[in-house]
Specification:
Elongation Factor Tu (Ef-tu), domain 3, 13 strands, about 5% helix, 2 domains
């Protein structure tokens, strides 16, 4: 498991004084501030974060080291990470997306379906994006208890019962 978990991203500049737009991926969006300082993906750059106000689709914030609009524009799209030990422990039936990516997915009969390339959410429920040699195209598998009854992080696998016709 990765020691860094993506908790948000920079969605552009906000104003002309170096503030940035933050999109939070936390269950309670404003909790992103509690995990400060945040880092980039490889952990080499650290960014203290202070939320200044709620705005449409996120927050305006100050990031340490970002003082001008040009600096804020330059980090547009930057993904922000917190250390796993900073985050709350999850119940047994909840998972960080990063822990699911790369897991192999098997059907209930033991046949390999593919592996998880990404986890997407377009509003209704999480979807596991599956890729594999036997799949003709990308498959989006609903990440519900009915469709995915077993996630075994220790063995690096998911057992799925895909709906009829999905594959």
């Amino acid at each position: 498991m990765n020691d860094l978990i993506c908790v948000g991203s920079v969605a552009g500049s906000y104003g002309v004084r170096g503030e940035v737009r933050i999109k939070s991926f936390c269950a309670v969006p404003e909790d992103i501030e509690n995990y400060s300082p945040l880092t980039n993906e490889d952990g080499t750059d650290r960014f203290p974060l202070v939320l200044t106000r709620a705005i449409k689709n996120g927050f305006a914030a100050r990031l340490g080291g970002i003082e001008t609009k040009e600096q804020a524009d330059a980090i547009n799209g930057l993904r922000l990470y917190a250390r796993r030990d900073q985050l709350p422990s999850l119940p047994d039936d909840e998972f960080y997306h990063t822990d699911l990516i790369g897991l192999e997915v098997y059907d209930t009969g033991g046949a390999l379906l593919g592996s998880v390339k990404a986890v997407q959410n377009h509003g209704a429920t999480d979807l596991l994006e599956l890729h594999g040699p036997e799949l003709k195209s990308t498959v989006l598998l609903p990440f519900t208890l009915e469709v995915v009854p077993t996630v075994d992080l220790d063995k690096g696998r998911i057992i799925a019962d895909p709906p009829e016709g999905l594959l």
